[in-house]
Design a protein that fits this description.
Layout (H helix, E strand, L loop, with lengths): L1 E7 L5 H15 L6 E7 L11 H9 L15 H4 L2 E4 L2 H8 L9 E3 L20 H25 L1
Parallel strand pairs: 1-2, 1-3, 3-4
The structure holds 4-nitrophenyl phosphate.
Length: 154
């Protein structure tokens, strides 16, 4: 099983949406038996909660059902996931603070995007609906590239 974990701060906006986009992509390509996709937050504020209602609504309009419940990133995930993708540089720093050195399987989501996109998937929590749409645009651009890279390796 190839396991991919998306990590943001609260695990209620960006990373659950990334999980939903990636799960749908893998399912559409008939590969859901080979991939386990999940997400986590570096903070524990929202543990057990469903994704933010604004992200649920924006995702649903594009055909994504987000069924995750928030959980906090744990050190044990460092070993158990094939690829860990931080949504922004702060999330990356927080994950790396639990690791030794800079393991090659921990990356920034935008490492898979060209330079027309920002380095950080912007946190939409304190903004308006357009922020949630922008996050989904970014996820829909990056997830196919991530899957293509994984298929070359595994
Ligand atoms: P996320 O967004 O990291 O994309 O899930 C946030 C959700 C909640 C908070 C911050 C960011 N918060 O401060 O509660």
């Amino acid at each position: 099983m190839v396991s991919v974990q998306f990590v943001c701060l609260g695990n209620i906006c960006r990373s659950p949406a990334a999980q939903g986009v990636m799960e749908t992509l893998v399912r559409t390509r008939g590969m859901d038996d080979r991939f386990a996709i999940d997400s986590a937050g570096t903070a524990g504020y929202h543990i057990g909660r469903p994704p933010d209602g604004r992200m649920l609504a924006s995702a649903q309009k594009r055909g994504y059902e987000l069924a995750s419940r928030a959980k906090q990133f744990e050190k044990s995930h460092l070993r158990s996931r094939t690829l860990i993708l931080a949504m922004d540089r702060e999330n990356l720093r927080d994950i790396l603070s639990l690791a030794e050195g800079v393991p090659a399987h921990i990356k920034l989501f935008s490492d898979y995007l060209d330079e027309s996109w920002p380095r950080d998937v912007p946190d939409p929590y304190y903004g308006g609906e357009e922020g949630f749409e922008y996050v989904l645009d970014m996820l829909e651009a990056g997830c196919p590239k991530i899957l293509d890279e994984l298929l070359k390796k595994f």
